[in-house]
């Protein structure tokens, strides 16, 4: 036996198959935001987790480790009432306060303890705290110090962004994504829109240069990794700014936060509150949890290719997870290895699900069925990934006579501003 009472890892190194259930809950965020506070949302979350637990028990998979299931909810599941919605003529702010945020994390930890061996990603939390210039500066430095983030959009990227964001809407008016969300909220259906042609863009640039500049600025502000840092740098000295906000995904396992990832792209995060400045996340979404290497992204981050730009060589991702409100699948930005999985929970069911990555293509994972929980679909998928070195599974071989070390694969990373990718 190796010194310190642990087995030498290299001697027992091998490959084992981890098979488990992955559940994607495509909860409609806008309906969720009509609920005041987070106690009731927590009860809804427990209802969905009970169904995931039942599915896990039914399948009787041997996961070969601590994780028997993964549960993923969409972006903004926990945020302020009416977050991002227009009420009257006012756009409502997204974040909850620091005290509510602390209470929420305690509640989620307690819920996690009720569902052991399920890696729970309960959507994201939009929250704020008083401005901390030192932390704020460190977050911006992470982005501004990287030359790759300073590259402007090229012509093709800009045109794609303009097409996606700005379209002809009702009454022949040019509308962007925020306008379309407001329309859907008010009318209960998507706004009928059509794409603007290349020639129409050219005509707008000639006839209405001021508006065209506004269109381009909207896309450029949201269109580059690091643009959020530039925008924040311009705003933070304003006397009106008193708080910094984040949009954070927490991964819970057995009552502990084993990883947290803060959104890096800014898509109208500060909407409705001039006292806020968005502080972009300052570390990559890569983390080894129980011998499985995960990659996490939040909505716009996937469109920007956050993981693909920050991934180091030799750090293959087994499971790429996205939480959104909503974002489409971007094949060029998927970092899951061949044979790995892409898992997406969204407010838009058509883009959500789980897929195995095979030769660069996504193949729908084996479905274990779906059900309706609190009015929205909860889908279950079979996931099986090869895991190297079973002793990276954090000492979960439960034979008390074998003092296997609990390797630090589930320790929450405390380096708030150090890149891991």
Q: Note poorly predicted spans.
A: 1-13, 390-421
Q: Tell me about the biggest sheet?
A: 6 strands, mixed
**Number of H/I helices:** 11
Q: What class do helices, strands and sheet pairing give?
A: alpha/beta
Q: Please give the share of residues in helix.
A: 25-40%
Q: How many beta-strand elements?
A: 20
Oligomeric form of this entry? single chain
User: Can you name the CATH architecture of the largest domain?
Assistant: 4-Layer Sandwich
Distance between the termini: 34 Å
Proportion of residues in extended strands: 25-35%
* CATH T-level fold name of the largest domain: Nitrilase/N-carbamoyl-D-aminoacid amidohydrolase
What is the mean predicted local confidence, pLDDT?
80
Radius of gyration: 22 Å
Q: Key features?
A:
421 residues; alpha/beta; Nitrilase/N-carbamoyl-D-aminoacid amidohydrolase; 6-stranded mixed beta sheet; 5-stranded mixed beta sheet; 11 helices; 28% helix; 28% strand; disordered N terminus
Describe the protein.
The strands form five sheets. This protein has a six-stranded mixed beta sheet with strand order 13-14-15-16-17-18. It has a five-stranded mixed beta sheet with strand order 5-2-1-20-19, with helices on one face. The chain is 28% helix and 28% strand. The N terminus and C terminus are likely disordered. It is of the alpha/beta class and 421 residues long. The chain contains eleven helices and 20 strands. The protein has two domains: 278 residues, Nitrilase/N-carbamoyl-D-aminoacid amidohydrolase; 69 residues, no CATH class.
